[in-house]
Recover the amino acids of this structure.
C-alpha cells in the first residue's frame, strides 16, 4: 500500500474509570491538532468524545466500572473529516432511540442530566449509535473541520 493510501488511525484502550475521561479528551484533541482546527472545533470534539466516553464508563458496566474496557478509535477520512469511535463491551442499550431522547437517563435524575447524546449531536456533524443488549455499545462521531484555525 502506498503512503498516500494509508489512513491516519489511532486506537486507544483504557479501563472504564472516571479519571480516564480526561485522558480520552486529551487524546482526541492531540489527534486533530495537526489538522489545524479552530479552537471551537477542538472544544466541540473534546466535549462530544467526553460525553461518549462518560456514557461508556457510567452506563456500560454498572456496579463494576473498574473491570470494564473502553476503546477510543480515531481516523481521518478524506482531507477534513475526522471520525471517532467509542466502544465498550458492557450491558448495551435496549432502546437506542429512547436513550438518544433529551433528558432520558438510566441514572438518578439528580446525578445525570440525560443530555449526553444531545450534546454529541449538537457538536458533531454525524452521530451513529449501535448497541446490542449484553454485547456493548459503539458510538461513532464524525466532524468536518473548517479550512483553518483562529488561533
Amino acid at each position: 500500500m502506498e503512503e498516500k493510501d494509508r489512513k491516519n488511525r489511532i486506537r486507544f484502550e483504557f479501563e472504564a474509570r472516571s479519571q480516564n475521561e480526561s485522558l480520552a479528551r486529551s487524546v482526541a484533541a492531540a489527534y486533530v491538532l495537526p489538522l489545524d482546527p479552530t479552537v471551537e472545533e477542538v472544544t466541540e470534539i473534546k466535549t462530544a468524545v467526553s460525553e461518549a466516553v462518560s456514557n461508556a464508563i457510567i452506563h456500560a458496566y454498572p456496579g463494576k466500572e473498574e473491570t470494564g474496557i473502553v476503546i477510543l478509535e480515531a481516523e481521518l477520512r478524506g482531507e477534513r473529516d475526522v471520525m471517532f469511535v467509542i466502544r465498550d463491551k458492557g450491558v448495551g442499550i435496549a432502546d437506542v432511540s429512547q436513550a438518544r431522547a433529551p433528558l432520558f437517563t438510566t441514572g438518578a435524575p439528580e446525578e445525570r442530566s440525560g443530555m449526553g447524546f444531545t450534546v454529541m449531536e449538537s457538536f458533531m456533524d454525524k452521530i451513529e449509535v449501535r448497541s446490542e443488549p449484553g454485547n456493548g455499545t459503539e458510538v461513532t462521531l464524525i466532524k468536518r473541520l473548517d479550512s483553518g484555525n483562529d488561533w
About this structure: The two ends are 36 Å apart (CA to CA). The mean pLDDT is 83. The longest strand covers residues 69-77.
